[in-house]
């Protein structure tokens, strides 16, 4: 008899089913020769083999019975002619025997040892593990049950309902406006202007997300005043910003990275006049910073700064060419996995995240503060061959620190100022774009890139310098003037100044008298 048949016989024996010689012989013939399952009948005999009964559909069982019925090897007795229970090959049959056999757990046992009584009162040996040696009822009781929500009372630690008292950007700006109004009798013009700016950010964000779907990627075929190739999104974002700020009725002068000259609101131009009225604010902006990364899907953003027109002025270029410390508000909106707008109105820095479902910027990062020291530096080391020696010396000091237990800084550089500064504001460290032998005045524009980011950094507790003087103290001479930029955590920037041999004293109210370092 083959091993397979012996196992089948042993399983039948364990199950307590009939296993007489005639039945067993018929089963053996069926296994070896299916057509010889029944003995041949002589031609003159009136007996005919009984037809094999048709199998009935399996009942839809649940609980332990359903699990057992679905177990491989478990078959219906009427359908197949025998019940093959799902048991281990070496299951110990009932009764006494002198042979030694492995039990269900693999331990060597003697067949002469009587089987342990089961919980249901029988003495059949276990099929699998001891915990399975229970009746169907016991197994159903042990089966995992869904939680009874009627009996379970959720506590404060189990359930936290979403906040219904959300603070939107408009609400937050209005609150700050009321505080300023009580202090200095200010009007609500700045609130209206900021509301217009957030609308433009939503519009630009919508186009950035579907740029690949509506053919807004790629170059527009033009170059701006900086000599850079304009992208389609650059041109579109610039038009969105200009039209929205004009329509607000609160602006007098606009300065954009994409336009050669400043835009004076209300001036006549060919074809008629603008339908907007002049306001008392000047807005400088980069409509889409990091445009070289647009097609790659890297984080990009809009940077803006706001000046108040001087008393008695109707909005001239002199109202814009002023130090960054005179800005009344500055911020940026970063377009990435979410749209994040970071804003300061001179009373700290707050971050807002756009909720597309309700169409509002929600306050998610209140009172952003830079740590005193970070662990990340963000500088384009691809230009190291052009850097001046003091800058290279500083980079070596943070990459190869001296001292026991000192750890090097991690490098993170995205290539979009908005994204790099945003990370620096949240995690600390230092961001830098120095002047070098190739770009002797630096690369970043002072008025609408360096000034807004420097104001945000200092309002968050950090420092911003060109390497020789405080950025916010510089008097610009042209709207597209450039300057080197270093900004970030206070101690990191101070270490940079020490390495660059800059005097440690800082003038936070007026122009700086520190001597230049030649970088």
TrEMBL record:
Keywords: Carbohydrate metabolism, Cytoplasm, Hydrolase, Magnesium, Metal-binding. Residues 370-499 form the Fructose-1-6-bisphosphatase class 1 C-terminal domain. Coiled coil: none annotated. Pathway: Carbohydrate biosynthesis. CDD domains: FBPase. Its EC number is 3.1.3.11. Homotetramer. This is Fructose-1,6-bisphosphatase. The lineage of its organism: Eukaryota, Fungi, Dikarya, Basidiomycota, Ustilaginomycotina.
